[in-house]
Amino acid sequence: MSTVSIEQLAERLEQVRLTLPGTVKLIAVTKQVPVEAIQAAYQLGLRDFGESRIQEAVVKQEQLQHLQDITWHLIGHLQTNKAAKALDQFQWIHSLDSLKLAQRLDQLAASLPIKPKLCLQVKIVPDPNKYGWTVPELLAALPELSQCQHLDIVGLMTIPPYGLPDAETLAIFQQARQLAEQIRQQSSLPIQELSMGMSNDYQLAVQAGATMVRLGSTLFGKRT
């Protein structure tokens, strides 16, 4: 459950907006956040919401069908066998982390009226606790990814290892931005979006060029 009142949410949101350039999209991460808090955030002007688990998202989306201009972002790991459901429920998938998953999504998206938007999840530095391509793996996969004609692969998503000093975290975000430039030069993928930065490090991500930040506890308080 969210631990903040609507008044506190409004105050927190205002503080966050003061720190974000107009070029940065704020995605409210609503994992374990009740529908009432999502409705409150909507009333305060938020339209982009991120969920980690498809099952939890489906329940909320059914209750919020009347809010038709919400954009839903899948930010958690996606298993290949849940790819079809993810395409049904989300306009954005930030966690495209393997060629197998990309090819499955591409196959499924052939029948969709619009291309889903995707970010490639990359591990800039080794991290056994995270999913994602290593940089060499991702660069090697670019020819095959470029052939996924039914997907709109538009960004990179990265999550630094927890507990790093700020300088190291900033360096990882800067390397992600440089990687996006490298991919644009080496492939036909229009990598313009950088989905990076969460509650504990989003200001560093913005400094490094993030275009989307994913904030949960900063807005909704600690999850209980």
UniProtKB/TrEMBL annotation:
<protein>
    <recommendedName>
        <fullName>Pyridoxal phosphate homeostasis protein</fullName>
    </recommendedName>
</protein>
<feature type="domain" description="Alanine racemase N-terminal">
    <location>
        <begin position="5"/>
        <end position="222"/>
    </location>
</feature>
<comment type="similarity">
    <text>Belongs to the pyridoxal phosphate-binding protein YggS/PROSC family.</text>
</comment>
<feature type="modified residue" description="N6-(pyridoxal phosphate)lysine">
    <location>
        <position position="31"/>
    </location>
</feature>
<dbReference type="GO" id="GO:0030170">
    <property type="term" value="F:pyridoxal phosphate binding"/>
</dbReference>
<dbReference type="InterPro" id="IPR001608">
    <property type="entry name" value="Ala_racemase_N"/>
</dbReference>
<dbReference type="InterPro" id="IPR011078">
    <property type="entry name" value="PyrdxlP_homeostasis"/>
</dbReference>
<keyword id="KW-0663">Pyridoxal phosphate</keyword>
<comment type="function">
    <text>Pyridoxal 5'-phosphate (PLP)-binding protein, which is involved in PLP homeostasis.</text>
</comment>
<dbReference type="InterPro" id="IPR029066">
    <property type="entry name" value="PLP-binding_barrel"/>
</dbReference>
<dbReference type="Pfam" id="PF01168">
    <property type="entry name" value="Ala_racemase_N"/>
</dbReference>
